[in-house]
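User: Here's a structure from my thesis project, written as C-alpha cells. My advisor, Dr. K., wants to see whether a designed sequence matches the one we expressed. Can you design one independently, without my sequence as a hint?
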C-alpha cells in the first residue's frame, strides 16, 4: 500500500475519538475492582454503624439497611451481603493490588478470605508478581491458588531424601530396554517407572510372579 497522504479530516477526528473511547473502556475495566472495593468498604462501615445504633446485630437500622441492599443487589440471600461486607473489611489490604485483581465479587471475596487467614503473610502480591493472578483471572483460578496454598506438600516416607527424575531414550525394543534396566527397576531406590504398558507386560513375562508383584506398582 502506498503512503497515506490524503485522509478526510472528519474521518481522522472519528479515529481519534475511537482511540479515546477505547482508553476510557480500558481504564474503566482496570478500575472496576477499585470501585467494588470502595463500595464494599462503605457497606462494611455502615453495617458497623447500624450495629452501634441498634446496640445489637439485628435491630431496626440493620433491617433498614438489609431492605435497601436486597433491592440493590436483587437477592434476599443474607450471605451475599455478608460477602460484600467481608470484602469491605479487608479492602485496605486489597486496594494496593486493585488494578491487577479480577473484579468478580466472588473472586474478591476469595482473596479477602486469604487476607483474613494470614493478614501479614498473604500471597496476593506474590501471585501477581508471578503472573498467576491477573485482572482476567476467573473465580476458578483464584480458588485454585487458594487451594494450592493450603494443601500441604507431600513428604516422601518421612525422610529428607530428594527424588531425581532421569529420562533415557533407548535404541531398542521393549524387551531389550527392560533387560537393560531389569536390575535397576528392582532396586528399592527406584520409586516410579513411567512408560507405555508394553514395558510392564515385558516385565511380567520376563520375571517370576513374586518378583514381578514386588515391582508392578512402580509402573505408571
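Assistant: Designed independently from the structure alone:
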Amino acid at each position: 500500500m502506498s503512503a497515506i497522504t490524503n485522509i478526510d479530516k472528519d474521518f481522522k477526528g472519528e479515529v481519534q475519538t475511537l482511540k479515546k473511547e477505547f482508553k476510557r473502556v480500558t481504564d474503566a475495566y482496570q478500575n472496576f475492582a477499585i470501585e467494588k472495593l470502595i463500595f464494599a468498604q462503605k457497606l462494611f462501615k455502615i453495617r458497623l454503624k447500624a450495629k452501634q445504633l441498634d446496640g445489637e446485630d439485628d435491630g431496626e437500622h440493620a433491617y433498614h439497611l438489609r431492605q435497601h441492599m436486597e433491592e440493590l443487589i436483587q437477592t434476599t440471600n443474607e450471605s451475599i451481603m455478608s460477602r460484600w461486607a467481608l470484602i469491605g473489611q479487608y479492602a485496605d489490604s486489597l486496594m494496593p493490588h486493585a488494578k491487577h485483581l479480577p473484579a468478580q465479587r466472588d473472586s474478591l471475596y476469595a482473596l479477602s478470605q486469604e487476607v483474613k487467614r494470614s493478614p501479614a503473610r498473604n500471597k496476593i502480591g506474590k501471585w501477581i508478581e508471578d503472573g498467576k493472578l491477573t485482572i482476567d483471572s476467573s473465580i476458578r483460578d483464584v480458588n485454585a491458588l487458594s487451594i494450592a496454598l493450603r494443601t500441604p506438600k507431600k513428604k516422601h516416607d518421612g525422610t529428607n531424601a530428594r527424588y531425581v527424575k532421569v529420562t533415557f531414550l533407548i535404541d531398542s525394543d521393549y524387551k531389550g530396554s527392560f533387560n537393560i534396566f531389569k536390575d535397576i527397576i528392582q532396586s528399592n531406590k527406584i520409586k516410579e517407572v513411567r512408560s507405555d504398558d508394553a514395558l510392564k507386560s515385558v516385565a511380567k513375562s520376563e520375571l517370576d510372579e513374586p518378583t514381578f508383584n514386588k515391582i508392578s506398582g512402580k509402573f505408571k
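When you compare it with your expressed construct, this may help: The mean pLDDT is 84.
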